[in-house]
Amino acid sequence: MAAAGRALRAALPAGLWGRLAPLPGAPRRTAAHFSFQPDPAPSEYGQTQKMNLFQSITSALDNALAKDPTAVIFGEDVAFGGVFRCTVGLRDKYGKDRVFNTPLCEQGIVGFGIGIAVTGATAIAEIQFADYIFPAFDQIVNEAAKYRYRSGDLFNCGSLTIRAPWGCVGHGALYHSQSPEAFFAHCPGIKIVIPRSPLQAKGLLLSCIEDKNPCIFFEPKILYRAAVEQVPVEPYKIPLSQAEVLQTGNDVTMVAWGTQVHVIKEVAAMAQEKLGVSCEVIDLRTILPWDTETVCKSVAKTGRLLISHEAPLTGGFASEISSTVQNQIFDFMETS
Amino acid sequence: MRKMLLAALSRLLQGPAAAGRTASRVMVASRNYGDFASEAKFEIKQCDLHHLEAGPPTTAVMTREEGLQYYKTMQTIRRMELKSDQLYKQKIIRGFCHLYDGQEACCVGIEAAIKPTDHVITAYRAHGFTYTRGVPVREILAELTGRKGGCAKGKGGSMHMYTKNFYGGNGIVGAQVPLGAGIALACKYFAKNEICVALYGDGAANQGQIFETYNMAALWKLPCIFVCENNRYGMGTSVERAAASTDYYKRGYFIPGLRVDGMDVLCVREAVKFAAEYCRSGKGPLVMELQTYRYHGHSMSDPGISYRTREEIQEVRSKSDPITLLKDRMVNNNLASVEELKEIDVAVRKEIEEAAQFATTDPEPPLEELGHHIYFNEPPFEVRGPNQWIKYKSVS
């Protein structure tokens, strides 16, 4: 990150730098802002429909329950449609034994989900907010992640997918805004996926559900209504552990995931326009296991890396990306 | 006798936040206070018992002074919550706001039965308790609007209000109950004859940590009253759909329990008096279920009518409203007159208006304080901001 700062400084005429960078140490009020930029409608998956993020999730879940007769969805308040309307209509369509509410017990929800998955049925658990996932942390890290390994592949809970609304929303404060991906990234055995848009969300969620490993799918809650795109009605999958290069460039690589992708897309446009800096924008998509190849290849080309995420800096996932990249391709990185 | 009552009444009407307010403005009409009874005896509902030989008494004596105080406190909380509703709809209060109107008898009854040196901890529906534990209305409203005059300096908001012997105000459902047991352990350890009242809702009653806490509290005989405020709905889920057993007072299983009518302030008071004595005598914890109701939805983003009917809300309002119940009791037993209670209403409304005025005009906490109180540390250290050029100083 510091390298990127110096990089940008080097790219600027000397006088401009002083005016752009505020006095170090002086706090300033900043307001989060981004505008969602929809991707063009894909043509290879058939007919598309205008959907926002929660509708694309509903569509994915609808496809999953239609295809897999063992699939069940459960969580707090999912029966009436969920607090973010992600499961609207599913109970009426598939019955109350396939879409049902649980009492208020996250540890119970995930433990229960692991149990369902171990028998081979597909379990799609919803945790109402990612901030509430911590009572279930033990179940995810100690039970779900290690089941296959400790049983010597005799058992696994690969058909478990946990969905949770994630990230800042403006008024969430302490307990409705957290981005806990870094806590889980420290745990081998699970997969963590964060989409940036409805199109990505449906494909990635269907991949998570069909993936033979327990997956945690974080949905940026600020995008539930704000992000609208043309999304295919039929099921389709987007591969996991593959980062997507949204825009190629030569001067600096910028990596983000979830809502922040839209912020850095704007920053890339601003950098091009005001500083003449050509940025390569990468959406990481899968946090664990992450696509080291795409990111390293990109940094080897540009020589500079900037990673941006909502979660706290210390121990955040950017530190993992940063250290891995520097470890692998240090010789290719610019010194300023 | 009359002069004493007059003085007592004017002191009452100044309210708990009184600081140098004159008594003269309060008296509008003069009347012969000797006409009122000084106290009256009331029949209260018997509590359901679990593993208890005897329960709280079925009659309660309330003095005129007590009645007026309960009335004023409940009315203040009611109006404060309605004011918060109004401010929220005007977007002066943002974020999440969980209102307590309908449940006033619970916090007032509990406060009436415990001492100020006892401890209380509850979940996020905390405005009522914040008030009864001694925070003035203006500080509560200022905290809701996020101003520096708020009781948590504007950094906590609706769910995080604290004061001496009141530990909040906790956002994560059920997480405050083990904390309550810990406070009770400290009470036992310091042997100052204090107890802890740990509250939670019917939704939280299904959390695993509650049962872990029951076990620890019973094992070590902690002086803790576990109070389940059963308002019949855990957010949008009715208790029948969430719980295998809706007898929340029996959920402690090996811990004795009481089920109490939470809409009757005297019933709550007697039950908590009974429970407090039980705990103080070293017999261990008790579980208490207060059957109550909330008029608003779960929070301000919940209209509250998609999972229950308007008729149901209306029925509770007309038949079991705690303030109306108290008012009828006082008027019918010659403890107060309708006009007198109306005067209290007017005074309360005025107080709330002034508090709302303060809450809307007080400045926000300064930006320099953003990083304070993350850790306790001296000397102050620097916290990174969202980018490498922003740093906040953290002082604590």
Automatic annotation (TrEMBL), chain A:
A single MF term (Gene Ontology): branched-chain 2-oxo acid dehydrogenase activity
InterPro entries (UniProt xref): THDP-binding, Transketo_C/PFOR_II, Transketolase-like_Pyr-bd, Transketolase_C
Enzyme Commission code(s) on record: 1.2.4.4
Reactions this protein catalyses: N(6)-[(R)-lipoyl]-L-lysyl-[protein] + 3-methyl-2-oxobutanoate + H(+) = N(6)-[(R)-S(8)-2-methylpropanoyldihydrolipoyl]-L-lysyl-[protein] + CO2
Entry keyword set: Oxidoreductase
Domain Transketolase-like pyrimidine-binding: 51-226
Source species of the chain: Junco hyemalis (Dark-eyed junco)
GO BP terms, alphabetized: branched-chain amino acid catabolic process; response to nutrient
Name of the protein in its database record: 3-methyl-2-oxobutanoate dehydrogenase (2-methylpropanoyl-transferring)
TrEMBL record, chain B:
Family annotation (InterPro entries): DH_E1, PDH_E1_Alpha_Subunit, Pyrv_DH_E1_asu_subgrp-y, THDP-binding
The UniProt record lists the keyword Transmembrane: no
Pfam (any one): E1_dh
An annotated GO BP: pyruvate decarboxylation to acetyl-CoA
EC numbers for this chain: 1.2.4.1
Subcellular location, record wording: Mitochondrion matrix
SUPFAM superfamilies named among the record's database cross-references: Thiamin diphosphate-binding fold (THDP-binding)
Catalyses which reaction(s): N(6)-[(R)-lipoyl]-L-lysyl-[protein] + pyruvate + H(+) = N(6)-[(R)-S(8)-acetyldihydrolipoyl]-L-lysyl-[protein] + CO2
Entry's transmembrane regions: none
Domain Dehydrogenase E1 component per the UniProt entry, residue ranges: 73-367
Keyword Hydrolase carried by entry: no
Keywords: Carbohydrate metabolism, Glucose metabolism, Magnesium, Metal-binding, Mitochondrion, Oxidoreductase, Phosphoprotein, Pyruvate, Signal, Thiamine pyrophosphate, Transit peptide
Gene3D superfamilies: 3.40.50.970
Major place of residence: mitochondrion
Any GO CC annotation of this UniProt entry: mitochondrial matrix
Annotated signal peptide: 1-19
Cofactor section: thiamine diphosphate; Mg(2+)
One MF annotation (Gene Ontology) recorded for this entry: pyruvate dehydrogenase (acetyl-transferring) activity
Function: The pyruvate dehydrogenase complex catalyzes the overall conversion of pyruvate to acetyl-CoA and CO(2), and thereby links the glycolytic pathway to the tricarboxylic cycle.
Name recorded for this polypeptide: Pyruvate dehydrogenase E1 component subunit alpha
